[in-house]
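Quick one:
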Amino acid sequence: MNKPEKLRVQIFIYMIAVFFMWFALSSALTEILYYLEDKRGVEFPFKFYIVMDFFQMVLLVLMNIPFFHFLIKHIDKPVQKIICGVNKITEGIYDEKIDVESNNELDQIKNAVNQMAEKLAEAEKIKQNAENERVLLFANMAHDLKTPITSIIGFSKALSDGIIEDEKKQAEYISTINSKAVRMNNLIDRLFEYVKLESADNKLHLEMIDIAEILRNCIADVYAEYEEKNIQLEIDIPDQAVIKNADKLELSRVYTNLLNNVIKHNPEGIRVSVKMSPDGQTVISDSGERIDKELAEKLFTPFVSGDSSRCSSNGSGLGLSLACKIIKKHGGELSFVQNEACNADDMGYTKSFIVKL
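Output:
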């Protein structure tokens, strides 16, 4: 495709062409009249010259009609279509593209406006998805808080009214109220962390760190719980340092969350593998039960967890969402795969979380 000619060049060439054509015809006519007067002795009346001047003016106008047609076709109509397209964008209509062919700078303006409309449409879609996610987040939060609040109200009412006289039963009620309150507090803390990560003002404290050492420390923190659950742990981490530009605290939170996720959502006695490649990719696999495909696709959505498929009441449903957001803020990716997709089926591992930095 040839590069479009510049509009000013097009107009200049057209005007020069019209001028020379008119000049040539006018000069030819003047030479003919001069020849007839001087060589042939023909005398033309004054009115004749007035008519000839008028004829030249009409000729000049007629010769410029194609020029006016050029202006209308290649400038006026495209400009009107571009203005119409911009007006639609201001009205929030982004899916109608401007379709003009002017072979000049107006094509560049058209392309720029169409690209702007596409980016605005993408931004609007992202904004709508974020709004839907926010509404779902608060709806799920209200749902998750309602159950413990209802329990607290019921038990505290029974205690305050003196309905429960047995001291042992009273102690059980008080313990239940405390555990429900702690669960609510943990949920609110997780929610605060999630909202804080979404804030544009929240910045990662990036530094060049050894992420292999970070992962070892996180494994050490949960090792006692793995032994209590009789979980067989296989570790394959490079001995040499794996240096990455990352936030030490936030990355530790991701690794710890994924390691705790194995304990919370799997039965005792499973096998777990933690591997880190020299480039920093970390794979945490386990041999627990698979997750339903529909649930697996929403695993990183706030308040979605594997509880429904594994009959567990553990977890807030925010841990994986937090981990995913932290990795994305690092410019990396957190993904979940099962069976053949993780190439670990021969080792008995059914599913894996993969962290790429």
